[in-house]
Amino acid sequence: MRRFSRFYMRWKVRARARAHRGTVRTIPAVASPELGNRRNLLVYTPASYARGTARYPVIYMHDGQNLFDAATSFAGDWGLKTALAWASRRGLEAIVVGIPNMGAARIDEYTPFVDPKVGGGGGDRYLDYLINTVKPLVDARFRTLPDRTHTGIAGSSLGGLISLYAYFRYPSVFGFVAALSPALWFANAAILDVAEQAPRAPGGGRLYFDVGLPEGDTHVRLARRLRDVLLAKGYEPQRELRWVEDEAGRHHESAWGRRFRRALPFLLRNGGSGSR
Which long-range contacts (CB under 8 A, 24 or more apart) does 63-72 make? Predict the structure, then answer.
């Protein structure tokens, strides 16, 4: 009897998880007139999407091939489907658009500045693609909440850098951001000046960023400088700003997936799915 009870409880937990598991769809070969290339888009919709008429917040995420499937990832995936199912069970649901990187073009697309050693600097054209091609396509094909309050952007490393830049540069488009282990060092930490000079967005927003302590002194020092800049600008901790130092966090997809799951309640606090 006891063995049956344990089996039943495991079955019940798995069944509940399956009931909240969303679907990843592919929009193939989306052309970019801004960048002169094409790439597939990966669009995650919550399990509830097929059962009603609700509209949903949208999170645009970089390095899309690393989010949902270990087979397509560079070094393991984020486990994002599990994280989003976990959030869904708590009433926090969103559409997630994974935008794959273009391999050798990744540095150029994810950097809004030119680094004297590494190069780069095509980030504004990449964001033009995201804002003027990808977002209108997603808003047209899916039931989204397209306003800034319900539109976020997220990424890690260089993807975290371009996410921060997008949040500061386009406050009318992006109302929340998650930057996991952002590459703040790029171009002599030019993003810190952008953060310092950027006006506060009307209506506020939500900014999450983090760093793993094992990533090294430079990463931690620059992350703390960004934290101090934002606090000096008046960002309110826990309401507008969530800052995390992960004692065990490596510069790796597994760490980012784990921390992103914990960040979702903060990011989606002002928007689950809309009225059905």
Answer: 63/98, 63/100, 63/101, 63/106, 63/155, 63/156, 63/159, 64/97, 64/98, 64/99, 64/100, 64/101, 65/98, 65/100, 65/101, 66/253, 67/42, 67/96, 67/98, 68/24, 68/42, 68/44, 68/98, 69/24
